[in-house]
Amino acid sequence: MGRFILHRILQMLPIIVLVSILAFALLKSMPGDPLDRMFENNPDFTYEDYVRLRALYGLDDPFYVAYFKWASQALQGNLGYSRQYRVPAQDLILPRLQNTMTLTIISFIFAIQAALAIGIISAVKQYSAIDYASMALTFVGSSLPNFWLGLMLIILFSVQLHWLPPGGIMSTDVGPGFWERALDRGKYLAMPVFITAFAEMTSWARFTRNSLLDVLQLDYLRTARAKGLTEQTVILRHALKNSLLPLVTVIGTSFSRFFAGAVVIETVFSYPGMGKLMYDSVMGNDFVVSMSILMILCVMVLWGNLLADITYGWLDPRIRYD
Amino acid sequence: MAREIAAPTRVLPRYEEKQVKVVGLYRMILMRFIRHRLAVIGLGVETALLFFTFVGPFLVPYSPDQVNLRERFAPPSFAMLTPVTGQPHVYNMAAVSAASDERPLRFGHPLGTDDLGRDTMTRAMFGGRVSLGIGFIVAIFATIMSAVIGSVSGYAGGWWDNLIQRANDVSHSLPDLPILMILSKMFPPGFWTMCLILLAMGGIRGGRVTRSMVLRLKQEQFTEAAKASGAAWPRLIFRHFIPNALSPLTVSMTLSVGNAIRTETSLSYLGLGIQPPMPSWGNMLSNAQQYFFSAPWLVFYPGIFIFLTLFCFNMIGDGLRDAFDPRMTQR
């Protein structure tokens, strides 16, 4: 197992390098000169200054030199300087990364709980009303555009019912107590979490149901029932673990969709996370920030895939990685 | 229900007592598709939407960019009175009863109007042309691209296969929306640029289905026979492998129409896709967001069109999958 993980991490490296080269090439070919902002409001800025600054910042370097400079700085945690906010990009990204992780992890937990519950119930009660209803729900859920669902929820819960705030991350007038603050954050997180979780939950629930149905026909379950185990034990302890395998693969591929969805959902709810920052930086031509975010997202997606593979091996001891 | 056997039509032997209906392959696929009720409904709704977007503009009295500041934020109404300065706006049944000679009854705005008094229904029709058009074009070309790339990769094997598969890995490890956002910022998006941007992403990503299909077909005897009779690799790929992989390709094409539309509308919603004044279902929504309170219909209707389209394509894809290969069915 250790060797397998090492092998997979080594496999990840060339992909990360390749993506970083791509990202850097995109960054270099972006329209607009990084120095524009510096002299746009400065009448004393001469052409000689411009040439000197270009040389100073290494903007005239050939591509590979510039790439290595950028990569070595990025590896040391220096991602560049945001033109829009005039702070180092990492100072901008890290707190927002935290917010995005909060949103994503909570949604992930909710999604997996709901998917397992719905999947198990509709597989056990196949062709019942509850099965049809939940499968219809999953079809509807996979066709709902998430930004529209967000807007409709805002209209319903914020504009009509005044239950939840339409966007943002926390109130300004919240008390100091932990629970008060947690409740406040929860109110702001409720709708984004629901939408992020819902889209993935629907496809996961369908997968759980289908693979559980496949497993339920196998002989060893008849054996388990024959030796007198309760139905609950048969399903939850014997069938479920085996039926989780395809689900783990699906979840492994869903990380990139989670982060892609975060861009839209955070923008809809003006939630100050990485997705919103991505949107703002793309709109504001602040490509140093957007490329750094892209790299971070990419690394996180790769780690997610690795995690899924490890889980796969842990769930299925038959798989040998040599 | 008669038994169905996929076989060429032939005269059945006399002695067989039972009446066995012999059905051709395509007819059988069609029959299975028709039995999938939701898929048929999806196909019907989708056809209606296509009519709505492509024929509808000839039937409505408005044009998509027709600004009418007297009729700003008109609520959804089939009948209305011509607005007159100083008098209240009258819509629907109230308009029918209040119609007079100096303020005659006229056709209203069935889906309301926006902040410039443009008719939402007309804009939705033209937006649908854009969104559906992009969806179809991207899906068709992305499927062709990924089929060719996938089968070359599966057939050539070795070095080429490795290269293409690693490129595939890279494109899968990138979250697509951020990349597309950056691309559409770099290339000012119009209809065709948008298609190209979506194609660049979708074309590389597919191909796994065809690849695994080709890997299987390569072992088949007919491949060997074709090779023995002197077929070169282009002939093998285009005449043997792709036709054999046609049914999964059709399914994945149907599903990717929906995906392309979803991505296009997301980008346009964010303001990075199709730019106003050209309407798209996505950018109609981004414009509507400011008028939550005063004009909720501006948010509601474009989204409903997107939802219906995605839902229908998912259903049609599901039905096609069942029809082509009942074993592939996810109960």
Question: Can you put this structure into words, describing what you see?
Answer:
The complex is a heterodimer of chains A (322) and B (331). Chain A is an all-alpha fold and 322 residues long. Chain A has helices at 2-28, 36-39, 47-56, 63-75, 89-124, 129-143, 146-160, 178-216, 219-226, 231-252, 255-268, 274-283, 287-315. Chain A has a single domain, classed as MetI-like fold (Orthogonal Bundle). In chain A, helix 7 (146-160) packs across helix 8 (178-216). Chain A is globular. The N and C termini of chain A lie close together (9 Å). Helices cover 62% and strands 4% of the residues of chain B. Chain B has a two-stranded parallel sheet. In chain B, strands 3-4 form a two-stranded antiparallel sheet. In chain B, helix 11 (246-269) packs parallel to helix 12 (281-288) and helix 11 (246-269) runs antiparallel to helix 13. The two termini of chain B are 20 Å apart. The relative contact order of chain B is 0.13. The model of chain B has no long low-confidence stretch (mean pLDDT 80). The interface between A and B is large, with 51 and 40 residues.
What's the total helix number of chain B?
13
**Main sheet overview of chain A:** none
Which percent range describes the beta-strand content of chain A?
A: under 5%
Number of strands of chain B: 4
Rg result of chain B? 26 Å
- The secondary-structure class of chain A comes to mainly alpha
- The count of DSSP E runs of length 2 or more, i.e. the number of strands of chain A, is 0
Main structural class of chain B: mainly alpha
CATH topology of chain A: MetI-like fold
Distance between the termini of chain B: 20 Å
Most residues in contact, chain pair and counts: A-B, 51 and 40 residues
What is the overall shape of chain B? flat
Q: Reading side by side through the largest sheet of chain B, how are the strands ordered?
A: 1-2
Number of domains of chain A: 1
- Name the shape of chain A in a single word: globular
